[in-house]
Design goal:
By secondary structure, the protein is of the alpha+beta class. It has helices spanning 5-19, 52-60, 64-71, 102-113, 166-184, 216-231; strands at residues 38-46, 77-83, 93-99, 127-140, 145-157, 190-196, 205-212, 249-259. It contains six helices and eight strands, in the order αβααββαββαββαβ.
Length: 260
């Protein structure tokens, strides 16, 4: 698809912002309250095609640093991804981990920087960059894990003149309630709505992330979004009043992940 599955949905979010306060509270979906912040570190790598198998094999071996950090509660999740939709200058593989504390996240990262024997395949990387993210809208099944699961990421940027609470309303009152339903019925394994903690890009970016094990559930997520739109034919302000549609970007990856 040329447009993100969330493009239509977040257009609905923008419309909802224009009319939500005119709708009786009983007619609205129960909002999802923000949780304590969860911090995430992502290392993105651009690896030449000839070394993909070597990189994937290296990532399949769980690093003892992450195993220990998960066991003692320093981190709450970790994993790896292979990009399925490549771009000329984009990443091919990534490594990530998440923690409920920025201090604990940095503790683990420092251990990686101190590693004297990192995987040799990393030396073949033609590009590398990191992201430091934070989310207050997230959930997963306790002890959830997936192997060769499908991770969908849709990224948008709020317009500079968007209301101060635009992100909170989009996340807590529109997107997260639907994702909670999909988590409860087993369609998705995990979701989060991320923003940058360290702004290596201009402020205003946010990403909607969902994980499914069965590829058929990608279609179920799309169908749920369409059904939600039909069930809530709200009119109001246009999507362009909140989100820069031209900034929309999508990713689909094949990943492995483990959650506390």
């Amino acid at each position: 698809m040329s447009k993100s599955k969330w493009s239509i949905f977040t257009a609905l979010c923008a419309i909802a912002l224009g009319t939500m306060w005119a709708v009786p509270a009983s007619a609205q979906t129960e909002p999802v309250k923000p949780k304590p912040p969860m911090y995430g570190y992502i290392a993105n790598w651009q690896i030449p095609r000839a070394h993909w198998a070597e990189m994937n094999s290296s990532e399949a071996n769980v690093d003892p640093i992450l195993t220990k950090a998960m066991a003692d509660g320093t981190i709450v999740a970790y994993g790896t991804d292979q990009n399925l939709v490549h771009t000329p200058d984009g990443w091919t593989q990534d490594d990530w981990f998440s923690s409920m504390s920025m201090g604990d996240l940095m503790k683990v990262l420092t251990q990686f920087y101190a590693e004297s024997n990192p995987p040799q395949v990393l030396q073949t990387a033609t590009k590398h960059w990191d992201l430091l993210l934070v989310t207050r809208y997230y959930n997963w099944k306790p002890g959830a894990s997936y192997k060769n699961g499908y991770v969908s990421v849709s990224t948008f940027r709020l317009k500079a003149n968007a209301p101060d609470d635009a992100f909170k309303v989009i996340s807590g009152e529109i997107v997260a309630p639907l994702l909670e339903q999909l988590l409860a019925d087993g369609t998705i394994l995990e979701y989060e709505i991320d923003t940058e903690y360290i702004h290596t890009n201009a402020p205003g970016l946010f990403s909607i992330v969902t994980v499914v094990q069965d590829p058929a559930n990608l279609d179920k997520v799309d169908a749920a979004i369409q059904a939600d739109i039909k069930a809530h034919p709200i009119t109001g302000v246009t999507f362009d009043s909140l989100v820069k549609e031209s900034s929309s970007r999508d990713e689909l990856t094949l990943g492995n992940g483990t959650f506390k």
